[in-house]
Amino acid sequence: MNSTKLFKLVMLVLIVISVVLLVWGFLTGFASNDGRAVEVLLYWAYIILAIAVLAVVVFGLVISAKNNPKSLVKLGIGILAIAAVCFVAYLVSPGNMPLQWNNPKLPSAQQLKLTDTILTLTYLTGGVAILSIIVGEVVMAIRNKK
């Protein structure tokens, strides 16, 4: 069995499992059983996401290493830069709770710190995306005038 057929078979199995879980969720009801169907679907989504990320990273590394071994150094520098940005976002995040809830299970300080870190990273990536769109349009406008 060649790799293309194996890939198609694995994709087909994952799709069939997804459809079966979805149909099961509709048949049992998403609100009944304390939302058990929703939990199962969320866990399945986490599994599928992990498989996708793993496949992209592993295949990307293998193809990159085959085509240009020196590109692995650039990849390592990129990963270190992303880790540094995440670490700085973690240090900057306050982790305090401005709202008082009527909930006896308040999140811990560590959970609040991680939530603030994710929000900071979301704001940062959104700002970088908007800035890159603006800079890209300006560069295209300058190049088209020449």
Task: Give a description of the structure.
Helix 1 (3-28) packs antiparallel against helix 2 (36-67) and helix 3 packs across helix 4. The chain has two domains: 1-67; 69-146, no CATH class. The protein is built from four helices and no strands. It has 146 residues and is mainly alpha-helical. The model has no long low-confidence stretch (mean pLDDT 86). The protein is extended.
Largest sheet: none
First and last CA, distance: 55 Å
- Report the total helices: 4
Report the sheet-strand fraction.
Answer: under 5%
Low-confidence stretches: none
Mean pLDDT: 86
Overall domain count: 2
Structural class, judged by helices and strands? mainly alpha
Q: SSE order in H/E notation?
A: HHHH
Helices and strands in order:
Blueprint: H1 3-28, H2 36-67, H3 71-92, H4 109-145
Write out key terms for the chains shown.
146 residues; extended; 2 domains
